[in-house]
Amino acid sequence: MSTATLDALLNSYARTGDPVREAVAATVHQLALAAVKVRNVINQGALGKAFAGTRGANTDGDIQKDLDVYADDIFLDAVRQAPVALYASEELEQPVLLNADAPIAIAIDPLDGSSNIDTNVSIGTIFSLLPATGAPDKNPAAAFFQPGVNQLAAGFFIYGPQLALVLSLGSGTHVFVQSARLGTFIQAYESRIIPDRAHEFAINAANYRHWDEAVRLYVDDCMKGSEGPRERDFNMRWIASLVADCYRILVRGGVFLYPGDKRRGYAQGRLRLVYEANPIAYLIEQAGGSATDTIGRILEIEPQSLHQRTPLVFGSSREVARIARYHTEPSGIGERSPLFGNRGLFRA
Ligand SMILES: O=P(O)(O)OC[C@H]1O[C@](O)(COP(=O)(O)O)[C@@H](O)[C@@H]1O
Ligand SMILES: [Mg+2]
Ligand SMILES: [Mg+2]
Questions:
Q1: Rounded distance from Cα 240 to ligand 2 centre (Å)
Q2: Is residue 70 within 8 Å of 47, Cβ to Cβ?
Q3: Ligand 3 center to residue 275 CA distance, Å?
Q4: What is the pLDDT of residues 203-254, one digit of tens each?
Q5: 109 CB less than 6 Å from ligand 1?
Q6: What percent of the chain has pLDDT over 70?
Q7: Which residue among 62, 68, 111, 115 is best mutated to probe the pocket of ligand 1, counting the most ligand atoms within 8 A of its Cβ?
Q8: Is 241 in the pocket of ligand 1 (CB under 6 A)?
Q9: Is the pLDDT of residue 66 over 90?
Q10: Could you give the C-alpha distances from 28 to 97, 150, 155, 173, in angstroms and in order?
Q11: Domains and CATH numbers, the chain
Q12: 8 A C-beta contact, residue 252 and residue 198
């Protein structure tokens, strides 16, 4: 029996002879080689001083760790070997022009979940492949101002107990695990389908006092469990690695929220549209789930700048739609019985 591998999927995808598909397949192949290099460095015990060390701040003011910068260098080197016109990264203010005639632009979060590096919790790399529209040599950033529906492919690597790749080439969301024995990525699951009902929610509850009323009401109602308007119990998770929270939702359902809040600089939440929310939304939709900025579809947002943030809600479709109604119907009308009022469990 033949084993389903990443290379087999890429070959079958590129078989049409379409040069853009060939470019996508070649790029994903190079990214997979780069991810193995990053994983090997992590495994060499670089988690302590050297790689959790800090450098300065990136474009968004986040502290850059050595591993953020190292991963960025590795992935930039990798895509130099692929037909890629432009490379935009969380770690670089402006995109890098590579081969102006190539058909692909890549946006990447080279190291997602940086705050977890020194705690040995799963971290990852998120990428989005777009058509290299416009004139890459004259206005490099313009190619990244396309809505996420235009993505040709998207995915993430997760450096966890296993090195896994979650990938969509526009037809389903596939999960591969790297096999050291076989030296390649092997299919771990058939294309994922997220259950449309959620039993688990993920949010950083420490920000409760900063949220707006709709988010508080939603979380309050989940917390009340079987004694509240939802009439069933919920579990809660927050890994603080978008890739790890997304992987869990792809495997067993649930919902993730990083809403905007009242902290300075957090009106649009924390996550970046072009290289975090868009690729995650693409993977989630391809797995039958939904992704919004609490109300509107993430993939339809026209980016205005490379590093812009967006509130992000994704996961099981019914739950994502319910969260939108908490925002559009005052006090979550229609979702809540008057019996339960507005007094939240988190409130004194
Ligand atoms: O620490 P917080 O505010 O809970 O934020 C956690 C979120 O921030 C992120 O770490 C942001 O990504 P980076 O590590 O790439 O900056 C996400 O992976 C995660 O979901
Ligand atoms: Mg990130
Ligand atoms: Mg990052």
A1: 9
A2: no
A3: 9
A4: 999 999 999 999 999 999 999 999 999 999 999 999 999 999 999 999 999 9
A5: yes
A6: 88
A7: 115
A8: yes
A9: no
A10: 19, 17, 9, 14
A11: 6-189 (3.30.540.10), 200-340 (3.40.190.80)
A12: no
Q: Of all protein residues, whose CA lies closest to atom 14 belonging to ligand 1?
A: 113
Q: What is the per-residue pLDDT across 13-46, written as a single tens digit (0 to 9) for each?
A: 999 999 999 999 999 999 999 999 999 988 875 4
Q: Where do the H-state alpha helices sit in the chain?
A: 6-14, 19-43, 49-52, 66-80, 213-224, 242-252, 278-286, 317-328
Ligand 1, atom 9: closest residue by C-alpha: 113
- Is the pLDDT assigned to residue 332 strictly greater than 60? no
Structure-block tokens of residue 185: 């990525």
Put the strands of the sheet holding 174-179 in their side by side order.
96-97, 84-89, 104-112, 123-131, 153-159, 163-168, 174-179, 184-189
Q: Which amino acid is at 110?
A: P
Which ligand is closest to the CA of 242, given by its number? 1
Query: pTM surpassing 0.90?
Result: yes
pLDDT score of 3: 64
Token digits for 61?
């003011």
E strand intervals along the chain = 54-57, 63-65, 84-89, 96-97, 104-112, 123-131, 153-159, 163-168, 174-179, 184-189, 200-202, 235-237, 255-258, 290-292, 312-315
